[in-house]
Automatic annotation (TrEMBL):
Protein name: N-acetyltransferase
Occurrences of domain N-acetyltransferase (ranges): 5-143
Lineage: Bacteria, Bacillati, Bacillota, Bacilli, Bacillales
Swiss-Prot/TrEMBL keywords: Acyltransferase, Transferase
Pfam hit, one: Acetyltransf_1
InterPro entries: Acyl_CoA_acyltransferase, GNAT_dom, NH2A_AcTrfase
């Protein structure tokens, strides 16, 4: 099956579909859950991948510091995996970071090979105190985090 996908900035009408994608990952324990209200209040940070009028993937870019953003809530519906949609979303988010003049993009992930294929490198989590104080203090895995930190420099 060939899938034609377009990436774009998310709009309010995408909130339910973004929430569904994130919930599927959160239910498996591999992504932090996000409420519909949280997604709505941060919709300007989200991008989506759309195929035949349906949102099939999403991701967001969260500012952590003046020179650092995080890719978060990155996911693709199960039936659309394997078509390069995740990489297209990452590329779209990296372009946004470049346009904003942000030189470093990080993520916490279980999908290290995916991020390495997209030009990221594994780094120690401890180099991101901005992340720790923004999100990690609220995470139930705070003291036993098993996610891997990755970083890509755009400068």
């Amino acid at each position: 099956m060939t899938v034609t996908v377009a990436c774009r900035k998310a709009v309010i009408e995408d909130v339910d579909q973004i929430h569904q994608i994130i919930r599927e990952y959160a239910d498996k324990g591999i992504m932090l859950p996000r409420s519909q209200q949280t997604i709505l209040s941060t919709i300007d940070t989200f991008v989506v991948a759309e195929a035949a009028g349906k949102v099939v993937g999403c991701g967001s870019l969260c500012q952590l510091g003046s020179d650092l953003v995080e890719i978060r809530s990155l996911g693709v519906l199960e039936e659309y995996k394997g078509h390069g949609i995740g990489s297209r979303l990452v590329g779209f988010l990296l372009e946004q970071a470049k346009r904003r003049g942000i030189p470093k993009v990080m993520a916490l992930t279980y999908e290290v090979k995916f991020f390495e294929r997209n030009g990221f490198h594994v780094v120690p989590k401890e180099i991101f105190p901005e992340k720790v104080w923004t999100d990690c203090i609220y995470c139930k895995k705070q003291h036993c985090c098993d996610e891997i930190a990755v970083l890509k420099r755009l400068d």
